[in-house]
Amino acid sequence: NQKRYESNNNKMMENKEYNITNLKLNNNNLGPYLAGLIEGDGTITVQNSSSIKKTKYRPMIIVVFKLEDLELANYLCNLTKCGKVYKKINRNYVLWTIHDLKGVYTLLNIINGYMRTPKYEAFVRGAEFMNNYINSMKIVHNKLKNMDNIKIKPLDTSDIDSNAWLAGMTDADGNFSINLMNGKNRSSRAMPYYCLELKQNYHKNSNNNINLSYFNIMSAIATYFNVNLYSRERNLNLTTSTNKTYKTYYSYKVMVANTHKNIKVMEYFNKYSLLSSKHLDFLDWSKLVILINNEGQSMNTNGSWELGMNLRKDYNKTRTTFTWFHLKNTYLENK
């Protein structure tokens, strides 16, 4: 079944111009959104200062998108005027890669003060590298003359609903699901739920003052939606033809399934919209939540079961229709 895309823009670009104050950005929204997105599906790579490698490289920021979200990758690239979007041949993902000095500097400034997870450690190393580079090279690099040191801000501990961070994180790692449950001892039900799952611990840390655990942020999200935080353990089979390997993966999971609590999920994502194709799933998911909230569960024609069954035909992994009108004049831009 061939997937159909309705596109506003399919341009890949690299923009070398730099003036962060002239960009058409609403940083009160863009900063938190990009921080959440990068903390979910992004990487800030910084060479260790003690590395013995002769070749020294600058920090790099890479964000991974599934292939269906190419439009979002291009949109963010165009909006920030940073980096390039690469579509890998025969791969189901695309990469937004920022490795030029000014691009990395711009993004680090944008997300400064909005990081909420242990990946803040990588941000700090990246910002410190940039500051040291700017201070040591300003004399010989004229292009650095308008670049001030990044004033590193602490982790964001503001209320979850105070900004768009959770929208970025959910575009990266969250999902909206619809389960159809055939009950033997109770009536069949269509169950919409929101889920976010993150690993328990950060893989590395060069700053002993930074908490390695994802417990605090996941606990804050669970508290916001008034649900329990679950700890999960999964055994992953990583066996190849030449090597038999198993790895245990530990994660924290927030799941919202109660109808009234799903309404709060709706309220947040109506305020801070998702920007990936998950926005389309959220809109469909919301239809079911509203129907159940207003009329309850029903097996009747036009009831919750029928709606859930019909929505699942073009939803999440089965989705074949994509529109991108929600990327026009988003809340990330200055109006």
Automatic annotation (TrEMBL):
GO biological process, one term: intron homing
Family matches, as SUPFAM superfamilies: Homing endonucleases
The UniProt record lists the keyword Transport: no
Domain of life where this protein originates: Eukaryota
Membrane topology: Multi-pass membrane protein
Record has Ion transport as a keyword: no
Transmembrane segments: none
Domain Homing endonuclease LAGLIDADG, residue spans: 34-126, 166-288
GO cellular component, one term: mitochondrion
GO molecular-function term, one example from the UniProt record: endonuclease activity
Primary location recorded for the protein, binned into one broad class: membrane
UniProt cross-references to Gene3D superfamilies, sorted A to Z: Homing endonucleases (3.10.28.10)
InterPro entries: Homing_endonucl, LAGLIDADG_dom, LAGLIDADG_Endonuclease
UniProt keyword annotations, A-Z: Endonuclease, Hydrolase, Intron homing, Membrane, Mitochondrion, Nuclease, Transmembrane, Transmembrane helix
Cellular localisation: Membrane; Mitochondrion
Family matches, as Pfam families: LAGLIDADG_1 (PF00961)
PANTHER family: INTRON-ENCODED ENDONUCLEASE AI3-RELATED (PTHR36181), INTRON-ENCODED LAGLIDADG ENDONUCLEASE FAMILY PROTEIN (PTHR36181:SF6)
Family: In the C-terminal section; belongs to the LAGLIDADG endonuclease family.
This protein's name: Homing endonuclease LAGLIDADG domain-containing protein
Organism whose genome encodes this protein: Torulaspora delbrueckii (Yeast)
